[in-house]
Amino acid sequence: MPSRVRRALSEYRLFAYLAVLGPGIIAANAGNDASGIATYSSVGAEFGYSLLWVFLPMVVSLMIVQEMCVRMGVVTGQGLADLIREQFGVRWTALIMLALLIANTGVIISEFVGIAQASELFGIPRYFTIPLAAGLIWWLVVKGSQKRVERVFLAMSLVFFCYVISAFMSGPDWNDVGSSFVSPSFQGDFVYLFMIMALIGTTITPFMQVYVQSSVVEKRMDVEDLGVARADVVVGTIFACAIAAFIVICSAATLHLNGITEIDSAATAAEAFVPIAGVYAKYLFGIGLFGAAMLAMGVLPLATAYSLSEALGFEKGLSRSFREAPIFIGIFTALILVGAIVALIPGIPQIQLLITTQTINGLLLPVILIAIVRLSSNREIMGEHANTPLFNVIAWIISLTVSGLSLALIGKTIADMF
């Protein structure tokens, strides 16, 4: 093949990838939200590098789950809630959507609290940043096109490089880091197992699967785009899990090695870095927290609006006006308003809020995962693109393992409450 033709084909593949780039990267990175950053910081502070090995099976698990959702969106042209309603009936759909609405509303509030904490690290009061952030996100989504929203969300994902810089600034022992990835270590105490569950529960969440499938549908991808859509999922998953690992490394190299093991929020972690790594580490961490909360604050209400509109059979989409999709835009607007107003209440009990939403999400995750595997293996829906027998076995093992860990995490959380 002539070099000119090869070069032209390479350029075509690059442009084809860039055309569908977005849903997988955005969905995966939205999982690294304010509560996720707090979890990763706590893991590094309490256990050092010893839990880094968990990220390898997590990458594979998230990749497989998101690939099934992307494949369903491309092949069927329907969102996850659409397919659940058609295949499992209205009652199951109503129950799942109610749980998703309650859980996502709680997490949206926590994202606004994360924005408040990040701005207060820089001495800016929350009463200024929360209304401004809410207004910016609302204007971007309601007034912008689908392409513009996606580009801004992708740009927000770049802020996660702050954690890469923070990790290198902290001066970790890279030999220990590398060996911790490839040499799993196990401890019998329940706190260690609890942190493994928390890591997985933070990384694989219901709203991510809803968002990625609905985004693929809205981009009107077809079967010819399946290869590059899968590549988007792979790149997004690896990038998001790598950022999470860098947060653990940063906390392990600073907080853990200096005997600081108690972290109750991402802002607390940022403050704790100052005497160890200097004020710049605090500001880098704060910028990362602000960007992460902004991204999740946009994705979560969108995922909720998509799922509820699909379940109820209403028009939805970022390209629709309020007149064309009043329910979709109304749900998105209401969630932004509720999140901002509640987060402005002085002394909002963030920890209790996160525990409640984590519990609901934990109960919902097994249902969503089982539905995803059943739908993606259904040949009546998926045809030749249904799960292969081997893929199905792997998908069921992942779904049942993650579901079991999620339910165990809920049991531990409820036990601690009493």
Features:
Amino acid/polyamine transporter I; 19 helices; mainly alpha; 79% helix; single chain; 418 residues; globular
> What's the count of strands?
0
The CATH homology group name:
Amino acid/polyamine transporter I
Ranges where pLDDT stays below 50 over 5 or more residues in a row are 8-20
If helices are DSSP runs of H or I spanning 4 or more residues, what is the number of helices? 19
Note the overall shape.
globular
Q: Structural class, please?
A: mainly alpha
Radius of gyration: 21 Å
- Pattern of helices and strands: HHHHHHHHHHHHHHHHHHH
Residue share in β-strands: under 5%
Overview of this protein structure:
The protein has 19 helices and no strands. The chain is mostly helical and 418 residues long. The chain has a single domain, classed as Amino acid/polyamine transporter I (Up-down Bundle). The longest helix is centred in the last third of the chain and has 34 residues. It is globular, with a radius of gyration of 21 Å. About 3% of the residues have low confidence.
